[in-house]
Every structure is written in C-alpha cells, then in structure tokens.
Amino acid sequence: MTIPMSSPEIPTGPGLDPGLYIVATPIGNLGDLSPRAADVLARADVVAVEDSRVTAGLLRHIGVKRPMIPYHDHNAEGVRPSLIARMATEAVALVSDAGTPLISDPGFKLVRDARAAGHLVVTIPGPCAAVAALTLAGLPTDRFLFLGFLPPKEKARADAIAEVAAVRATLVLYESGPRLAACLATLATVLGDREAAVTREITKKFEEAVTGTLATLAARYADAPPRGEIVIVVAPPGDAPPASVEDGDTALAEALTRLPAGQAASEVAKALGLDRKTLYARALAMKN
User: Fold this and answer.
1) CA 192 to CA 201: how far, in whole Å?
2) pLDDT grade, residue 104 (50/70/90)?
3) According to the model, what pLDDT value does residue 14 have?
4) Angle formed by the axes of helices 261-272 and 276-287, to 10°?
5) CA dihedral 9, 14, 20, 24 (to 10 degrees)
6) What is the rounded CA–CA span in Å between residue 204 and residue 28?
7) Got the DSSP string for 5-43?
8) How high is the pLDDT of residue 5?
9) Number of helical (H) and strand (E) elements in the chain, helices listed first
C-alpha cells in the first residue's frame, strides 16, 4: 500500500449509536480513507474484518486500536448470529480488505439480517475498484454490469459470458494475474473482438490502464501475466444490423400462430424496428 505524507486527524466524541456501519476502505492508497470512515472506525465497538492483519495496518495508520472479529466466506454462517446480537447494544463496523464491503464479499447477508432484526444500518461510502476502473477505461459508463470474478474453468467461464453477451452495457469484472490472458481470450471468443481495458494497481504507484481489443490484450498478457489486483472493463456490443424482410417474415409467421394479424404486426414492429403497416399487409397475405 502507498502511505500518504500524513495521517488524518481522528475526531473525538461520544460513541456511535448501536447498529451496523458499512465502511469503505482504500483500495491501495491509504490517503483515500475518508475522515468519516476514520471516525467510525475509531469509535466502533468492534470491527468485522476479512483479514485482521490487513485491517490492523489500516487502524495503525489512523492511530487507533479496536477489537476485531474475522468475518469472511469461510466463517460467515457461524459468526453472523453473534454479530447481529451485538448490534442491539454495540456499533459494529464492517470492512473488507480493500474497497467497499459487499462488492464481491459476503456482507449482503449481514446487512439483510441486521435489517430484519430492526437494527440501524449505515453506509460510509468510498473507494470501489470496479467504479474506479470505469473512470480509467475510457469506455461508455451510462450503463454497466458488474460480474465479479468469473468461474476459473474455461467451459463455465464461457457459459457465464454467453449469458450476458447481448446485454447492451459495459461489462466490469475482476480477475487475477495468472488467469488474465485465458479470461481475455474467452471473452474475445464469446463476445467478439470488442474494445476493452485492463486496469491494475489502481491508486498505487504503478497504476495503469492498458486499452485495446480483447484479442490484442489476450496476446499481450499471454506470456507476461501482471501482478496486482486487476479489473477488466469490456465495451458494450455494437449496434445490431437492421432487420431484413426475411427476419420480419420469420417473426411474423411465429407471431401469427399466437395472435391475430394486427397484434402480430404490432409485436414484430416493436421487436425489430420495422414498419407496422408493411408488416400488417404481409401478415394478411400470409393468412390468405
């Protein structure tokens, strides 16, 4: 982690109200910890952490010590009930090793159960690698779909990508260095050679965003897997070619098995962007 020139000053004051506090932490540069996040961590009764060693370093940086309880994929089911019980009288802060809790983390069940128990739930927003990568990639950001980590095996990975291939949104996913080239190659095979970006070491000294087509990026990293935490950003699909007369006839023939001519023409016109009057005439001809 990159250590900033100075540590934030920690506000002092009364304890926090009992409940759950979802605290975003830096994804690399400790200077990105917000004053509000530092304040909550300093005053929480207990901090639920992914790895106590990582969070201990963050707490040392802001000059505080707090009790910590491990909360991660392997122990969440067993630990969650006791954390929920403590929220009745104590302030429980939830952090991940880096970034915003619940994003590719098991925290959503803790939030769900805290709400069901009637406890206060507060979010302290901040860094998120997926959103930071979008700002670096130079690809459309008006609609995006976060996929987390794809399956490691090629067939399962290809199937997962195929499920979202037609989604008209930029895709954002996490990956490790050793699997990066294989993941990019599968993306290129299933999605076609879309524009993409590979971002890594975000907010750190060697932050980079490498752009190109999926095939070009797969070749780049085939023999040189990078280090660090990686986010892949993939452009949305291009505009579909306009529907042909043959497409309209095929869709009409199917629609006419379920609907009268007028409704069939309306349905196909809306789905394919074709002229309704023309489709209605075709539908009448087909019926006759």
Assistant:
1) 27
2) confident
3) 67
4) 140
5) -10
6) 5
7) SSPPPPP--SPPPSEEEEE-B-SSBGGGS-HHHHHHHHH
8) 37
9) 11, 10
Contact 133, 49 (CB under 8 A): no
Can you tell me the distance from the alpha carbon of 128 to that of 84, in angstroms, rounded to the nearest whole number? 25
- Residue 231 pLDDT: 98
Give the integer Cα–Cα distance in Å for 238 and 1: 38
- CA distance linking residue 268 with residue 247, whole number of Å: 10
Closest Cα partner for 199 from 191, 212, 208?
A: 208
SS3 102: coil
pLDDT digits (tens, 9 = 90+) for 239-256: 666 788 888 888 889 889
- What span, in angstroms and rounded, lies between the C-alpha atoms of 212 and 233? 11
**Nearest Cα to Cα of residue 146 among 156, 136, 132, 158:** 132
Cα distance between residue 57 and residue 53, in whole Å = 6
Distances (CA, A) of 39 to 14, 16, 25, 179, 223: 11, 10, 12, 38, 45
Residue 168: C-alpha distances to residues 3, 140, 148 (Å): 39, 10, 18
Helix (H, G, I), strand (E, B) or coil at 105: coil
- Residues 209-237 have a mean pLDDT of 95
Query: Rounded to an integer, what distance in angstroms lies between the CA atom of residue 172 and that of residue 165?
Result: 13
First to last CA, the chain: 74
* DSSP code per residue over 122-175: EEE----HHHHHHHHH-S--SSEEEEEEPPSSHHHHHHHHHHTTT--SEEEEEE
Nearest to 133 by CA among 66, 55, 196: 196
What is d(CA 119, CA 41) in angstroms, rounded to the nearest whole number? 18
Q: What is the CA radius of gyration of the chain?
A: 25
